[in-house]
């Protein structure tokens, strides 16, 4: 996918227990303060989406991985035109992440099914709404098939 189509990235940080890492946006964020979200960011000029994903992982979470350790996450007909999704396997404990404090207040591992239930209940503590359910259903299927 080219930079022209992909303006944003989102990264599923997964562990070997089939959990996804969510990060709590800081209280001073203009949009969605104190809510759980994926590692996301914008693709900067001259940067590929994958390079943007690597940069955001490092800036927001202190995670350094190589291009070979991050993979595209495709979920069929629901693929976004403007957001590229990736996944990376990272088995850090929450204490091992070095979070960017002006952006985040904490990180936590969640079962994908729990995230789906938060979305279904319209929980105001998570950024995502019903339009992202198919994405998380695809993630749950992926985790159950390839991780667990």
Describe the fold and architecture.
The protein starts with 7 loop residues before the first strand and ends with a helix. It has 148 residues and is an alpha+beta fold. Helix 2 (112-120) packs antiparallel against helix 3 (133-147). The strands form two sheets. It has a four-stranded mixed sheet, with helices on one face. It has a three-stranded antiparallel sheet with strand order 3-2-7. The protein has a single domain, classed as Alpha-Beta Complex (Nucleoside Triphosphate Pyrophosphohydrolase), CATH 3.90.79. The protein is built from three helices and seven strands.
Give a short summary of the structure:
With 148 residues, the protein is of the alpha+beta class. Helix content is 25%, strand content 26%.
Kindly list the characteristics that best describe this protein.
alpha+beta; about 25% strand; about 150 residues; 3-stranded antiparallel beta sheet; Nucleoside Triphosphate Pyrophosphohydrolase; 3 helices
Helix and strand topology:
Blueprint: E1 8-14, E2 19-25, E3 36-37, E4 39-42, H1 49-61, E5 70-72, E6 83-89, E7 104-111, H2 112-120, H3 133-147
Parallel strand pairs: 1-6
Antiparallel strand pairs: 1-4, 2-3, 2-7, 5-6
Helix pairs in contact: 2-3
Low-confidence stretches: none
Largest sheet: 4 strands, mixed
Distance between the termini: 29 Å
What is the element string, with H for helices and E for strands?
EEEEHEEEHH
CATH architecture annotation:
Alpha-Beta Complex
The CATH homologous superfamily corresponds to Nucleoside Triphosphate Pyrophosphohydrolase
Q: Which bin fits the share of residues in helices?
A: 25-40%
Gyration radius, rounded? 14 Å
């Amino acid at each position: 996918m080219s930079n022209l189509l992909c303006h944003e990235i989102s990264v599923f940080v997964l562990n070997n227990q089939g959990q996804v890492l969510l990060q709590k946006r800081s209280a001073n964020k203009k949009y969605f303060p104190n809510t759980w979200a994926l590692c996301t960011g914008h693709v900067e000029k001259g940067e590929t989406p994958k390079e943007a994903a690597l940069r955001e992982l490092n800036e927001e979470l202190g995670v350094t991985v190589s291009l070979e350790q991050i993979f595209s996450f495709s979920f069929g007909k629901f693929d976004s035109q403007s957001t590229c999704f990736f996944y990376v396997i990272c088995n850090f404990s929450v204490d091992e992440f070095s979070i960017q404090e002006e952006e985040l207040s904490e990180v936590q591992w969640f079962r994908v099914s729990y995230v789906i239930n938060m979305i279904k209940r319209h929980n105001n503590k998570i950024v995502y709404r019903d339009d992202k359910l198919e994405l998380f259903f695809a993630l749950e299927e992926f985790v159950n098939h390839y991780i667990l």
